[in-house]
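User: Hey, quick favor. My workstation is busy. Could you predict this chain's structure for me?
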Amino acid sequence: MIVAGIFTPLERVMTHILVWLHVTGGLTWAWSVVALTVIVRILLVPVAVRQIHSMQALQMHAPEMKEIQQRYKNDKQKQSEELMKFYRENKINPYAACLPIAFQIPIFISLYYTLRHFEGNILSHYPGSSVEWLHLVNITQNVKVGWGPLLLVIYVASQLTSSYFMSTSMQSNAQRWMIMVLPVAFLPFLLRFPAGLMIYWVTTNLWTTGQGLVSRRMIKAPAPPPKRSSRTPPKDTSARGAPAASTASGTGSGQAPQRTGPSRRVKRKRGGRTRR
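Assistant: No problem, here it is.
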């Protein structure tokens, strides 16, 4: 009850939006849920763009971060300090990847309570309106009723597809497996959810899949930092090193000038002796 009280203001917002989409937009209640999902995802586009850039930056700097972790593997506090310093220097927000999910959790919970109180708060004012989706499921009933299991199959397929685009930017195989297995592990808990909530989730997954396809084409990954080696000269000494190099090569005063003409051809004879 405490959780329901916390999300009561947002539940009222969800109710007003659904009523507006149904009355003004002329949509059924089920398609109003779909339209609500699209509106939410449009509002979260800037957050999703930040998430994509953050995941690209983490992937690009993964070798450097792994080196810091190995260097301070025996001092966890120092390791954490150095990683935070590295994030600040490279303008990386490691928590940006979680922002879209963090913003959607309150909306998801509020929609859950909206659908639970749907008949008393909404349908009582609009008697006779249909709450079915494609004549398959009732958005106010549990997803295990009627054709609800088919909706669960669609959910698993869409969740695995959307999770694939998230897992491609992860370095750890354990993280990839976890994000791919979680949709199936959640199935026993989803059987008690209203079908309308599953419609919201499926629509969100389809949007995430489309967003992943578009972002791969339109959003280019940032250029990786230049790789330095033991032979790479310092940037500030490249200009000052030129005169010293010429002196060491023998072109200074008191040294014989180097031959500038064409080099003499050397012919090798079969007996190992050479003739110039």
